[in-house]
Amino acid sequence: MNKITINNNCKRCGRCARVCPAAVYTYEKGEVPKVVKPQHCIQCGHCVDVCEADALQHDSFSPEHIHRVQKELIPSPESLMELMKSRRSNRTITELPIPTEALKDIIEAAYVAPTSENSRKVVVTVLEGAEIQAVEDATMKFFLRLASVLMSKPIRPLTKLFLRDLYNEAAELYRFERRWKAGQRPCTCNAKALLVISTPKKYEFGWQDCNMAYQNASLMAEAHGVSQIYMGLVQIAFKFIGQRKTEELLHLPPGHKPFAIMALGMPAFYYPKYTDKPKKYKK
Ligand SMILES: Cc1cc2nc3c(=O)[nH]c(=O)nc-3n(C[C@H](O)[C@H](O)[C@H](O)COP(=O)(O)O)c2cc1C
What we know:
Layout (H helix, E strand, L loop, with lengths): L3 E3 L8 H5 L5 E2 L7 E2 L10 H5 L5 E3 L18 H10 L13 H12 L11 E5 L2 H21 L5 H7 L1 H5 L1 H12 L11 E8 L5 H18 L3 E4 L1 H8 L3 H8 L5 E10 L18
The chain binds flavin mononucleotide.
The site of flavin mononucleotide has 9 residues, from β7 and α10.
């Protein structure tokens, strides 16, 4: 149970009680808020962050972990919008190393994303070199095995009829196979690092928490000029690869499932323009 105290600096504004999502406090106008249910605390830090008088001590947040917001560093709506609009899945990844500081920021951005009930079960695992090659090979082999069944002579007409999208993508798969055999890593976009974002398999908000973390990390990558690409193909393959092998190949904590995977690397060049994204959904 958390230890929370409120000292004499309290201005009795009641903001800590107002922002607490777990009803840890009660507040009567003009009184110092009372800590009534510390056992309900989810360690979100709202009560600490909102207190102008620094009157609230919470044993999860020692002073070195409390920061004044540097408003001058917050991007303007215009600059944030420009970043989001110009972000691209730039697949021209080169052999250049990802700057260490950039990778550190990208990982930190993933970890500061919100999580359901502040449960913070997300783990970011970084794969490099031979580890990426193993992921590439497992993904490629999975899709080639699938194609060898779905595109075999007796099944092919059924695939064409009932799995039109998969049937149409076979040509792309064989292009990937040729590149893979030539020593490239088409499924993982020749990434220099893979970020595998996972939570325990049975945690019900795994998809949501990991993809919130993904989007934070993706915008940080863009801000650093590092290419990022969402690894949907890899994720599909690993749905069928089995828990033990998935943990082993993706170097996950025991019982974890990868809910988002990001390829990272330095691009050969940047795009000088962006096009508007047309809305495809029609009512
Ligand atoms: C869920 C999801 C899965 C994706 N899977 C892949 C993938 O396996 N390989 C790939 O090269 N790009 C993948 N992408 C990237 C999309 O193709 C890309 O975001 C889309 O074409 C729009 O381009 P942009 O990201 O440059 O705006 C994926 C994107 C999302 C959101």
